[in-house]
Structure formats: C-alpha cells, structure tokens
User: Fold these one by one.
Assistant:
Number 1:
Amino acid sequence: MTTTRTEPHVAGAGSAYRARISAELRSFFRQRESVVFTLVFPVVLLVLFGLILGGRSEVTPGVSFTQYFVAGMIAAGVLASSFQNLAIMIPIERDTGLLKRLRGTPMPKSAYFIGKVVQVIVVCVVEIVLLLVVGMLLFDVSLPATPTKWLVFIGVVLLGTASCTLLGIAFSSVPKSGRGAPAMVTPIALILQFISGVFFVFTLLPAWLQIVASLFPLKWMTQGMRYVFLPDSAKAAEAAGEWELGTIFLVLGAWTVVGLALCALTFRWRSRTDG
C-alpha cells in the first residue's frame, strides 16, 4: 500500500517540476526585453568596448587589454544571467500576483525555485557561448588549453552561478515593487562590474576600492576567468601576483552558503501590499 501511494506522488512532483521548468524557459525567451537586456546587452558591450580599446594597450607583454576584458565580460555575463535576471524578474512576478497564485496551487514550492535555477543555467550557458564565440572571432581569445583550466572554468561557472543565483533570489525581496527593481538592481550590477576588473584592469583601482570589490563574488569570478583564458604570464597583473585559485573557490563557496541562508530568511511570496 505504501508503494502505491508514493508512486503517484513522485510522478506528480516530477510533472510539476517539468511544467515549471518549461514555463520559466518559455517566459524568459518570449520576453524581448529579458532576452535583449540579459543576453544581447553583454555581447554588445563586449563588441563596442573591444573595438574601441582593441590593440591600444597591453596588460602584460603579449596580453592585450581586449583579451583581459573578454575574460571579465564572461564573468559579468554569469552575473547578468543569474543575480541581475532574478533580482529584477522575481519582484515583477511578486507584484503581478504570480507568486501568490503559485503558492496556492498543489505545486511543490521547490518547483518554483528549480524552474528558476534551470532557467538561469540555460541562459548562462547561452550567454557564455555567445561571448566566447565573439571573443574568439574578433579578439583572439583561445579556449582553455589544459584539463586543469577546463576544470577551473567549470568550477568557477558552477560556483559563480550558484552564489549569484541564490543572492539574486535573496535580493529580490529588497525592491519595494517590481517597477522599481530594474532601477535598483542595474546600478548595483554595473558598479560591481566597474570595480571588479571587468572594464578596468583591477590593479589600477585605488587600494581601498580593491578591498571593497574583494568582498563580492564578481571580483573572484573575473580573476578565475582570467586564469582560464589568459596565459600564465598575466598573473603578474593580479593584485597578489598570483591567481589565488584556492581563495577564488573559498570565497565563491562561502557566498553560496551565505546566499542560501539569506534566501531562507528573506524570500517572500507576497508583495508588501498583501502583507
């Protein structure tokens, strides 16, 4: 009897997860604004900045700033696909009453979050592929040359995506309304990019600003991507003169744990007006 009761429940849960994943993917790719802002905008920035700055300076001998910039933009693409995407979209869904309606259905609450996570993974993969293709075609960026670099690449993407996804879900409770979410989240994402070694060589920033940037995941994601895509000589341009791979994974892992705790403490299904 126990087996008979459990199997329909498991099957029903599986259907709910698949339905929610499908709904999240359809919702994202049908919204032109989301596709343009999340997927296309980082590629446009890469092309514009790359063409403007290409060949004008070297970070270290044999490493152009454009190559340095591409590595940073890949990390920024992960941030846009996860933190920025969720921190803007979830408040909008909360304001429209979607979260309230979903909570009132038999759907497991976890299905909503699984749907968001899968959506982020798909969007993140598409974003990275687009940026890599542009980087290789226009700016002489090469794919990782060793198994170790591939492993670091996968690890940084996974931990970076996990931490930024959880932080995006947690931060979604901060905006007072869905309408105000883009105005609050976008400047934060841009500031993090400017101080984390995306648009500027990190060591050219004031020392105090380097310390501030080091508190957040994006700085370590950009550093990890530079290890993956730049030659070993480029580590001379890092603040410590080393890649600090252990610290990269330690910080990203710590932020993943912090993000999970913040999600559990702060996530709201109802808007502020609903109480």
Number 2:
Amino acid sequence: MEPSKRSFPARTDTTMQAALMTRGFSQLYLSLGDTNPDGSIVIRLYHKPLVLLIWLGPLLMVLGGALSLSDRRLRIGAPKPAKPVTPRLQPAK
C-alpha cells in the first residue's frame, strides 16, 4: 500500500491520496496525515468490514424489479373496477 501526499506550491495546496486494499468483502484504507513539529507523520489506518456488501442492495433491487416485470398477469392490463351498486328505492309506508 502506497499512500501519497502532494504539495502544489503555486496554489499553496496539499492533497492526500489514500491507499486502498480489498480483502474479501472488507477494505483497508491507509492515509497520511500532517507532519508533527518533531518530524513524525500521522498515519491513519481504517478497516471497513463488509463494505463491499453495499453493492448487494442495488443488485437485489434490480433483480426484484426484473422479477416483477416478468409476471405476465400484471402486464396484460389491470382488471376493470366493478360498477357501483345503486340502492333500489322502497315505497314509503
């Protein structure tokens, strides 16, 4: 893993690029931080378990949509609603 820190003196800007390692369904992120006054550098290591399963949700939604579109009964047309029943008038007593 090779994270990097780049300085752009013309814009007085510094950017940091994190290193990424994927292992199974988890990922490791390694990023460089600021330099301390004693010359040491802050390193951050993040472990994100099961982060790749985030893609499972949209895939399940696509499969569910395809399954619902494959039901032929629903594509033919909606059934006609029943006509309202009008009450019969009764003679007054």
Number 3:
Amino acid sequence: MRVLSVASEAYPLIKTGGLADVVGALPAALAHHGVAMTTFLPGYPALAAVTGNAKVVHRYDDLLGVEARILEARIGEHPLLVLDAPSLFTRGGGPYGDATGADWVDNWLRFAAFSRAAADLASGVVEGQDFDILHAHDWQAAMAPAYLRYAPGPGTPAKTIVTIHNIAFQGRYGAEIFADLALPDAAFALDGVEYYGGVGFLKAGLEAADAITTVSPTYAAEIRRGEFGMGLEGLINVRADRLTGIVNGIDPAVWNPATDATLPSSYTARTLTRRRANKRAVETLYGLDRDDGPIFTVISRLTWQKGMDVLVAEIDELVALGGRLALLGSGDAALERAFLAAAERHPDRIGVRIGYDEPVSHLLQAGADAILIPSRFEPCGLTQLYGLAYGCIPVVARTGGLADTVIDANEAAIAAGVATGIQHDGITPEALSHALRRTFALYARPDRWAMLQRNAMRADFSWDESGRRYATLYSNLLERA
C-alpha cells in the first residue's frame, strides 16, 4: 500500500507539539506492515536543509492565486514531498503565527493551498506518484479530502482518512473565503465545507473522509458527547461507524533512557539508581535545592485545556508538602506570569523555563520523579508515554488517552503488581491536591515507588501495535472500495 501522510509538521524537521512526533514516527512504524508512506509538508524555512537540492516534480502557476512547486526529498530513510510556496510559508516566526505568537491572518489560504496540492498528489497530478490512501492530520490538512471529493486531479482519487489529534482546533473561517478556495458552489453545503454559515476545515474533512480516526479509544468515545465534541459531536455521531480510536506510540529510537545520548546518565529498569545523576542535573539546571524529596515536572503548553490554571493555584501546597517543580513550557501569558511569580516566591523549590527545548525535555523525563498532566481533555498525550518509558511517574487526569495508558496505583493494582501511575477524577483543586498527596505517600515508600517505575518502564507503547492497527485500517478501507 502507498499512503500519502499530509500534515503541517513532522519531527525532526518542524515541531511545535506531539503531532510532529506522531507524523515523524509513522513511516517507520508502518514500513513493518507493508505500507510505503510518503510524508507531505509545507515548505517552511526549517526544511531548507533537506530541500536545497530537491527535485521539482510539479509546478503551479496558480495554486489558489500563488506560484508554487512540489519538491521531492527525504525525511530520514523515508520519502518526503514538500510544497514550496514562498509567499505562503517562507516567513519568520512559527509555522502558524508570527514571532509574537499571533496567528497569520492568511492561515486559511496557506493550508487550503497545502490541502489542494495534497489532493492533487493523491489523484495523480505527478506521474509515478500514485497513492492508495491520503491520510490527513488535523485541520491544517483536513481540506484535502474535501478537494478530492469536489475537485479531484486527473487520476483516480485515493481513499481518505482524517485523524483528529485535537478536536478543539478546527480551522473555522468566514464565508467570504469560500470564493477563493477554487471549489464548486455545491461544496458550500451542510454536508460539505459549510459550518455555521462559514467554512470549517476540520468539519469539511470529517464530512468527506472515508474513515476517521482519533488518537485513543477513550477520546473517540468522549468526542461523541457535547462536553468534548466542541460542536462537532453531531457529525461525529452520524459518522460513528467510520470512527476508530488508535493510541499513539512513541519512537524508541528517540525516547529510550538506555540509549538516550542527551542524558548525563543512561539507565534501564534494572539500573534505576543511575537516574540520580539526571536528578542532580535537573536540580543544577533549574537552580533547585538538592534534597531527597520528589521533583515534579511539567512539560506542556500552559493553557486552560492542560489544567495549568488549577496546577498553579495548588503550587504552594506542592512546595509545602516538600516537593519541587521544574517546568518547561509556554502558552497563555497570564499563566506564564503566574508560574514565574511562583518561582519568585519559591526560588529554590520551583524552576520555570518558558519555551521548548528538546534535550531539556529528555532530561526532565529522566531526572524528575513524576510528571504532572492535569488536563481537562487529552486526546492521547505523549508526555505521559515518555514519562512511562523513563520511569517518571505520570500523575494524570482520568480522561482521553491518559485514561487509556496509565494504570492507577490503587490498592488492587499495587497488589497485582501492575500500577504505573496516579490518576484523578476531575480538574479541581481538591482532586489535584488529593493526587499530590497520594503521590507523596507512594514516594515515601521506596519499594512501592521503584515498583511503579519498573512497571512503567516495562509498558510497551512503541509503534508496533499502533502501526499494525493503522495498516489494518488501511487494508479494510481499500477492501471496501
């Protein structure tokens, strides 16, 4: 099977979050299952190193009003196609916004053009580039199935899948953009791209796709309800027979404490004492007191969704209980200020680094004792999977992929020897406070804490099983043709 994976980011070329890790890992994960995957990305400046001498396989004089080329390159050992459209993607700042964090006002055009080109690729516009399936990730790629439905290229259109990594991000725009999308009038309909009088990119993809996936079974069930569906629960329920939840995996070539070259000290489940050198390194990097109490970490966007408002309100209690916190993240300005203010109140107990740093994230997983993820909703989550792999015990809300991947350390699970973390119900100060106190109680029992770490590190969240499930989904989709 030949699959075109269409996404706005992919590790290691361009990354703002977990989407990049998933898209970057899929080609290798699926190669073991008879799937040849080509990744298609926008031509951001960060891709210049791999596109400098790339072959041009297609040219556009007018791709939704701009000149563009499709380039053929490589992402590691796997094929890569890149939409080279300088007027859309050669900019400073990030992939979605400027240096201040404000979204580009023409994001609708940027990702509509990207989706148009993806649909062309998936319907034969480039000779020799034939695909059985187009796999679109999130709203930035979700218009591709709509283009294949309403205005395909010259060849036979591929079957289509849309994966929802986070239904909260939908790509909604006013009706005035429709005239510039190069779609027939019939597409602006309730069962097309129209959404509450405007244009909905994710909604359009969910209407047009032959199959829909999301990134955990629990989240697949949650988004059918109003409190999680973000206005799309009606459509999700109508198409529930096409919906599958597949938990993300992690790449052991990147996330493995036994081989991680970024760490001061590598280790395994049998050599947990070697983690201490990493803990000392976290204390030094963050300017924390050196003692025997637990270090908690947060590696996250600082947003309401992630429950960071509740965490920052409980941070004084965490310190009063004897804990320390090392945070890496960015997001809402008010939350950034609140965490920085907490660090000023407790300069030796709380360390905050605003932004993202890949090696530091590895160090935190390898040196902190527990990772806090109090999300109000979490489609899958990857940081808890990294925590499990590194013996950094996840303390998580019981929602979405967090519920599917962490086994709560209740008495039955401890007695059975299967517990891997701490779960809590609800995102309230009381729920988080109780989870913190449970964590401190477990940490005070070194035998139980080591058991949690060993169980966590033995859990298998590689891409083997998830890759097999995607390959089966692709096969079933083609058999329905």
Number 4:
Amino acid sequence: MTARTPSPLAFAIPATGIAIYSVMDAVMKGLSVESGAYSAVLWRSIAGLALAGSVFVARRRRWPGRVAIRLHVARGLFAGLSVLLFFWGLARVPMAKAVTLTFLAPLLAIFLAAVVLGERIRRAAILGAIVAAGGVLVIAAGEVQARSSTDSVLGTIAIVVASVLYAASLILLRRQAQAADPLEVTLFTSLVIGTVLLLGAPWLSGWPAWPQTPAIGFAAVLGTISSMLMAWAYARAETQLLATVEYTAFVWAAVLGYLVFGERVTTFTVAGAALIVAGCVVAVRKVAPAPQIEAGA
C-alpha cells in the first residue's frame, strides 16, 4: 500500500524517536565517562543486536539481498564511527552544546548529496551554510571566552567530525529505509557497528562492570526503539519535516544535561544553536516535497 502518513503522525513519530534518543544520550554519556566511549558503544551495540536479532529470528525473517547488505554495511560504517566520535566528545562537553553541533548534519547532507547523488547546490543552501558556520564560530568563541580545557576543545572537534559522518549516514539511511523495514535497518546497523568494534575490543575495551550492565541494556532498548521510529519516519516523511524535528533534541539535551549532570546552557550555545538552525531552515525552505514511497503493509 502507499505509505501516506497524516501530518500530525509524521511529526509525532520522529519527535518521539528524538526524545527517546536524547534519554539514551544521557545514559551513554554516563557510561562513556565511567568506562570510555569505545566500551559504551561496543556493548550497547551488542545488546541492541541481541534485542533486534531475537525479534528478527522470532518473526522468521529472510536474510536481505546483496544490494540491501551493501547499504547496511556502508551506513553501519559511517554511523558507527559517527556514534563513537560523538559519545567520545559527549563525555567531554555539555549535552546541549554537543547536540547543537549535530544540527550541522542536515545542512551538510545537502552538500554531500551534491557530491554523491549529483544534485545541484542551490544558492539558498550556500547562504544557509554561511549562516550555520557563523553559529559554529559563536560556539567556538564561547570556548575561547570560557578558556575551555584542551579536553573540551578536542571533544568539540570530535563532535563536528561526527556530524559530517552523520550527514553521510543520513543520505544512506534514506536509501536504506526504502530498501528495508525498520527492524532490518536497526538490526544490521547494530550488527555492523558491533562487528567492527569487536576487532579492537582486545586492546580498547573490556567486559563491562556489573553495575553498568543494566544501564547498557537500558541504552540498547532506547536505541533500538528510537532507531526503528526514525527508520519508519525516513521511509515516509518529507526530508524538511524530519530536519525540523531534529531540532527538538536541543530542548531535551538542555533539560537532561541540567537534571542529570548539572550542566548549564551558556548564551554562546543558545546563540550558536539559533544560527545553525536558521541556516538549515534557509537551506531547505524551497526544497520540493519528497515523492510518496510505496511500502509494504
């Protein structure tokens, strides 16, 4: 049937996914501080693989075809490195600042689409990039004004790089969501990330301490639910709607950062977030609606 999603539901589903993912960010930040980002991402991926894999096997799903496998592997590699860098940086900077810098991803995706898909870059996208770059400079000015530590600066750089990789994974997610359903997307993302990270586990990770095990399981559940909701949304909703929904993460990050870690949102972060969001809005304001996608019931 045609996946024609009512407007309120098209907003509510990804917004719920973002809220759930933000809670997972808070859990993962705590785990990354305690045991390192590598261990936190590795064991969350393995727990997520066990969770999604159990459902996949119970439903007797078929193994995906060669084209889908290539998409799963490609996106898993980009998403895995992006997630690893993001949580490494998140352990060193406030949540609101980290999430603000990820807002660059929808804008960067426009330029990556031009390189990968041959799409024409519009003037609005260039103007939006300039405005958003101003937002990044404002946040950088905040780092200088606050005389941030080297660790904090490196964390900020890691998150910016993670945003570039996340933008690439968004392009692949749009293709992936059309070739596979949310369960398959979620399962193979965890499978690829977990497999790659296991290669470095003997040197970069160890078994999680028992007190961390419930938190890892909780993060895996949250991540699995969020991933399935976002994959469902990317198969149905327009790109510009989803880009707008992403910005709700700033509110959750600011609230959770304050309640869980006692972090306060600085004026520089708020101003930078406003400029980055404005840049993204300018860049996508005249984008034509995405075509309807045929999806199985």
